[in-house]
Amino acid sequence: MENIAVLGSTGSIGTSGLDVIAKFPDRFKICALSANTNVELLRKQAKIYKPEAVCVGEMRRDKGRWGGIRVYEGESGLLEMLENLKIDTVLVGIAGSSALLPILTVLDRVKKMALANKEALVMAGSLIMDKAAKNNVKIMPVDSEHSAIFQCIGSNNRKDLKKIFLTGSGGPLLKVKKSGFKDITVKQAINHPRWKMGKKISVDSATMMNKGLEVIEAAWLFNTEIKNIEILIHPEAVVHSMVEFTDGAVLAQMGACDMRLPIQYALTYPERSASGIKSPDFSKIKSLTFYKPDFERFPCMGLAYDAGKKGGTFPSVLNASNETAVKEFVEGRIRFVDIPKVIGRVLRLHKGVKDPGLLDILEADKWARIKTKEMLRCCR
Which domains does the chain have, with CATH numbers? Predict the structure, then answer.
């Protein structure tokens, strides 16, 4: 029986993860759940799964009604909970940079990490991968694209890997002309055609920053250079990614657009079990199309490639500036087209630290957020 902690249990990854875990009652025992603001849903989950402990971002109501479950609060409480419990496996569904410190903390405790957060790897890939290697922790990617890459590589020697093709549907604005971007609303930006996700990642899909962040994530997960990772637009979203080997062979992973598939694979690896998820009907798929992305219409991808190649603290600045700008857009204070503009300006101002430690990364993150807000105030 594996003790499993689900971080971000009330979000889309967390709820899908709980659906998967519930199918394996003889294998997994949920020992901890965490959520930021959705306390009521967390209470319902705690009543069903009966963990040893839960953590909330902020206790907004009476601390009672938890049925004897230990309750932690805030970022410090989450770190304390992770240090106090016996955890074998952790599913990280926390969104954004706030996952970094919990990830670094829990890597000292677990045997396996199912990782659905890309921002932490973008910020501090070297620190995370080094710590995982030191503690012999298996990091299993949960992003559909990175799970696909992992499945395609399989037991092949990583030295045989020549190129990674990172596919993307193109997001909700794929067919919108560049001239129309200045009028894009939040509702349009979060209306993803294939996946149901939170607002931040949905906006990232609209700007295609999501693909750029995934390029940096893939470089760390699969120990390859940024130049060996190519983004391909694939509107049908049947092929979740592909890899090419040195002999010219290309392998692709295909499946339904359902996050429960990569979550289950990450949690039960190396085993495969029935998921109950309907597979694509290939007789009804008339074509599978692939084409190169438009870096002029979606400049966030180019910003991510550049930051990834520079390395050091540049990816941390990229991520922090993006998170800040997206929040401003979602809250109606800036236009959609302002997002890549301000990120580019902040990156150009950054001096960079070549081989950063944690404090350097956190300082770069803080600087980028302040600088982004300053620039956006000037734009209003």
Answer: 2-141 (3.40.50.720), 144-257+273-294 (no CATH), 311-380 (1.10.1740.10)
Q: Which residues of 354-368 are buried (b: 16+ CB within 10 A; e: fewer)?
A: eebeeebbbebbebb
The two structure tokens encoding residue 86:
């016996």
- The single residue listed with the structure tokens 């971000």 is 8
Question: DSSP letters of 226-241?
Answer: GGGEEEEE-TT--EEE
Q: Which residues, in sequence order, are CB contacts of 334 under 8 Å at separation 6+? A: 325, 328, 342, 376, 379, 380
CB neighbour list of residue 185: distance below 8 Å, 6 or more residues apart: none
pLDDT tens column, 295-349 = 999 999 999 999 999 999 999 999 999 999 999 999 999 999 999 999 999 999 9
The string of pLDDT tens digits covering residues 272-303 is 999 999 999 999 999 999 999 999 999 999 99
The phi and psi torsions of 322 (rounded to 5 degrees) equal -65, -45
Strand, helix or coil for residue 24:
coil
Greatest alpha-carbon pair distance for the chain in Å reads 62
ω into 270 cis (within 30 of 0): yes
Question: 20: helix, coil or strand?
Answer: helix
Task: Answer yes or no: is pLDDT of 64 > 70.
Answer: no
CA distance 183 to 38: 32
Torsion of CA 372, 374, 379, 380, to 10 degrees: 110
Question: Over the chain, what is the mean pLDDT?
Answer: 94
Vertex 339: Cα angle to 350 and 142 (nearest 5): 90
pLDDT in tens, 86-145: 999 999 999 999 999 999 999 999 999 999 999 999 999 999 999 999 999 999 999 999
Q: Which residue is listed with tokens 């909330």?
A: 56
Residues 6+ apart with CB under 8 A from 44: none
Q: Is the predicted pLDDT of residue 193 greater than 70, yes or no?
A: no
